[in-house]
Amino acid sequence: MPAFKEKLKKILGSRFKANHPLAALTTFGIGGPADYYGEIHSREELQAVCGEAKKTDIAVTALGFGSNVLISDQGVRGMVIRLDGNFKDFSINREGAVVAGAAARLPKLVTVLAEKGYQGMEALVGVPGTVGGGIFMNAGTREGEIKDHLLSAAVFSLKDGRFCDWAAKDIGFGYRHSSFQKSQDIIVAATFKFPLAENKKDVSNRIKSLMERRKITQPVDTKNVGSIFQNPPGDYAARLIEAAGLKGTRMGGAVVSDRHANFIVNLEQAKASDVRALIEIVRRTVREKFGVDLNTEVRMLGEFR
Ligand SMILES: Cc1cc2nc3c(=O)[nH]c(=O)nc-3n(C[C@H](O)[C@H](O)[C@H](O)COP(=O)(O)OP(=O)(O)OC[C@H]3O[C@@H](n4cnc5c(N)ncnc54)[C@H](O)[C@@H]3O)c2cc1C
In 119, 129, 157, 231, which residue has its Cα 20 to 30 A from 50's Cα atom? Predict the structure, then answer.
């Protein structure tokens, strides 16, 4: 596609790459290259890039912090984009309204909001993703979900090439679900509103204890993507996987964590095919032992057999 490459170079300069490795852009550290890759700094660039891709019939896939994706060993066909530059910014006004770019990091938001005495975002402490990835996934914990304080999201529609705003109530959120998982929309920004805490110290204490809990229960400092499976109704995937005796099960360089059974860790240069095979072993064993079908929470990008 020489013409496409030339046009993209004109729009993005050195931020456009062909055959670009993606593994290092994910917390799993796994996966092959994107045919084309670009870091996007403005809405104008996003519109121009997606317009060229559409003309040439090239699929566009958004990547956030890469903390909930398993990228195929063969990589991703078409163009992978990452929002960067001003998309990482956010502002907080005195009433607790937050306007954040989709590339703003959740850990930073959690910290800054807590410092200013706002409560609610600390439910997401320890979730390493971005605002865009968080809304796409409706990231959450037992303490709350990203949708809880969301007012609206601004998105770019790949279908009609336009920007529009979605009120949170119209987005169709569920457990680790948003309607953006079906539509072809790129989330570019979000507006939240957080209440002031009665006591600022309570928020920081809560953050501390939630973080400590994670350190005890999760394999921190390893390459992973958090929970691999969604919890089935009324139960926990981790409980079922552990009860099935699957902790420590290994496939190539990937292993079911001894610390948290719903985590798979890339121990030693694991391939996506290793992780995929392990996912199938876990699913089959849990189905045979308990009659429960586990659905994946991790998003697979690229082709998997
Ligand atoms: C140690 C660890 C702990 C975790 N704990 C939790 C937890 O407690 N709760 C929880 O919910 N998750 C958890 N996660 C998973 C992950 O952090 C969340 O799902 C997060 O919301 C993903 O955000 P991201 O920016 O990394 O998205 P990515 O992983 O980059 O992408 C995830 C999906 O979102 C899409 N996407 C990303 N950005 C956009 C955008 N701007 N527009 C449209 N689509 C987009 C991608 O195409 C992909 O399908 C954890 C992960 C790790 C590594």
Answer: 129
